[in-house]
Amino acid sequence: MIDAVRYLVDNGIKWRAMPSDFPPWSRVYAFFARWRDAGLVTELHDRLREAVRLSEGRSPEPSAAVVDSQSVKADATVTLTSRGYDAGKKINGRKRHLLTDTLGLLLTVLVTPASTTDRDAARVLLPAAKHHFRRLGRVWADGGYTGHLTDWTTQHLGLVLGIVRRSDDASGFEVLPRRWVVERSFAWLLRSRRLVRDYERRTDTSETVVLWSMTMLMSRRLAAQRRQRPVPTRAA
């Protein structure tokens, strides 16, 4: 069942186009929905993230994070009540708000209509993250999070929100400190074809697909590290 869900997320197929060597699509979707509703996907994802952080010599719980958003086009299956228009990006669809650690690993995700501003989404995303990650003390963000949000996070959450601004003299692409981490995470997610466009009717289903995509990335990383470890030899 897990391989079937991973295949769907990675290749972007329809549920009804599930290959015959997997269980019937209806059974796979029922498994997907049960894990989504019971929070088991989140638990699997969080355990993998802790394992990756430990393998990198980090504490299981992060103390700093990076936040950003990405607007993606929505398919016709997405209802009008859960989609919106991002005037800045000129995209009609949904917006993914990610909070990642300094390694680019996902801490929490929130999917909203594309018309939702970054500041409004942060008032939902950051309190949930602070409640789950007690050590979290600093968050970096771009200019879309300026304003009263910086004072609000300090007063109500005890978080320092650092704004990484783009230079006024810069032209074209520019790698910005800290912000490139979450931008790379968005690029990782777009390797999963199911996430190139939002096809899900429910926003919590979209969030679950993001979690599945990140579990694939982390499990492959852990498997690669295991293969690279030297095989111990017995003493003569």
UniProtKB/TrEMBL annotation:
InterPro entries in the record: IS402-like_dom, Transposase_11
Annotated Pfam families: DDE_Tnp_1 (PF01609), DUF4096 (PF13340)
Transposase IS4-like domain: residues covered: 61-214
Domain of life: Bacteria
Domain Insertion element IS402-like span(s) in chain numbering: 1-45
Protein name from the UniProt record: Transposase
Originating organism: Streptomyces incarnatus
